[in-house]
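Saturday, quiet lab. Running sequence design on the structure tokens for the scaffold JK sent over.
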């Protein structure tokens, strides 16, 4: 289990996230007096609820101690619930938990970073440094052509997973966290070519020919 503040959770993801303390005085804090300060608190809550991949729990305590003064739920709670569900009624269908095991030692992988790599953090790495450099070069060129930040194409963690796992087929590629149907359609062919030994120039040339056709 990871215990994190809303600030430190930025950029991270977990399958299940529990956001506690959604009461007035805690979130927003009692120090948030101005509209600007309240808006910053709301943005922090949004960071928290968007860290969840599958399951999200929002909660607050009715009182700090038994018999204590009743606490009011956060004014952000309705907004948080709407953001978490896309404005739709909450999903009640149970979701299947997918167990991911370390490809080195076979242990169950719990953290998002370990699941993406497919191994425990302290298990030996099979990183192909040369492939990682080609993937980074290709990502930079692709991001520049699309006028987007490089991480929008693939994050560093996804590139590292690709350079470690070296998928040779579409089925293996989509098993890597961070590569869904959309990115598979956009970049799958190029990534598989690079893993197979193609140069960045070869991939760029093939993509240019396909675009012209």
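Result came back. Writing it out in full:
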């Amino acid at each position: 289990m990871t215990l994190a503040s809303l600030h430190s959770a930025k950029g991270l993801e977990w399958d299940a996230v529990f956001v506690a303390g959604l009461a007035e005085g805690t979130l927003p804090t009692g120090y948030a007096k101005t509209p600007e300060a309240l808006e910053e608190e709301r943005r922090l809550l949004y960071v928290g609820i968007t860290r969840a991949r599958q399951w999200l729990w929002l909660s607050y305590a009715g009182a700090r101690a038994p018999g204590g003064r009743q606490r009011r739920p956060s004014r952000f709670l309705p907004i948080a619930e709407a953001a978490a569900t896309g404005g739709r009624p909450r999903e009640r269908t149970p979701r299947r938990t997918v167990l991911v095991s370390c490809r080195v030692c076979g242990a169950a992988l719990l953290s998002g970073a370990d699941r993406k790599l497919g191994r425990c953090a302290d298990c030996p790495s099979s990183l192909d440094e040369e492939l990682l450099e080609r993937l980074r070069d290709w990502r930079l060129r692709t991001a520049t052509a699309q006028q987007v930040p490089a991480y929008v194409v693939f994050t560093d963690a996804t590139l590292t997973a690709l350079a470690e796992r070296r998928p040779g087929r579409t089925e293996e590629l989509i098993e890597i966290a961070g590569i869904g149907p959309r990115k598979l359609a956009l970049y799958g062919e190029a990534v598989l070519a690079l893993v197979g030994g193609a140069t960045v120039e070869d991939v760029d040339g093939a993509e240019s020919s396909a675009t012209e056709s």
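Notes for JK: Confidence is low (pLDDT under 50) at residues 89-97. The CA atoms of residues 168 and 192 lie 6 Å apart. Ask whether to fix the surface positions before the next round.
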